[in-house]
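Q: A reviewer asked whether we had any structural model of the full assembly, not just the individual parts. We don't, so I'm hoping you can provide one. Inputs are below.
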Amino acid sequence: MTVGAVVWIAIGGAWAAWLVTTTLVRRLPGVDSVVRSFLGSWLGRIVALAAWAEAGWHLFGQRP
Amino acid sequence: MASHASILAVVAVVLTLALVSGRGRQRERSRTWARDAARALRGVTSAARDRNAAFAGALVWVLLVVAAVAWDAVSFAAQRHSLPTLSRLFGDVTDHDWGRAIVFAAWLVLGLYLATGSRRSPPEEES
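A: Here is a predicted structure for the entire assembly that you could use as a starting point for your response.
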């Protein structure tokens, strides 16, 4: 296993652990509340959609 | 070329949908949202315990995103086989037709939610 793969597994594991933690501990902001907070205004929604569009371009446009 | 055009077309449709479906239905003004977001990051809320939890939670989210973006940037700059970028990892899935279809469907559903979700109910029309 390469160094890069190990680091990505660690980062992915941290994301998974935090998602579980925010689900179990209601006081902590979960991914749903973070997304909803961005969707509260035009500015936040545009930021979220820009990130979504960039992700789509990167995923599907770079490797057609 | 067709792939680029189709992605741009999907983005254009979703953005148009966001504008059309959201006219007059945002929950708050952009300035208020930006101010409240800045205050949340500084931990300014009414209850001390909620303030600490909100601040800590926001900080962890920021660190997770920064870690992913930073490591992706390092891997991209290094251009070594032992340091795969996030797009190469996803590419191992999207190289297959089924993988590409699943990831595209998930991306599309997320876009539709970002465009149309979490809005105020439209005002009731007077009869």
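A: Points you may want to mention in the reply: Chain B is about 75% helix and 0% strand. Chain B touches chain A through 59 residues (CB under 8 Å).
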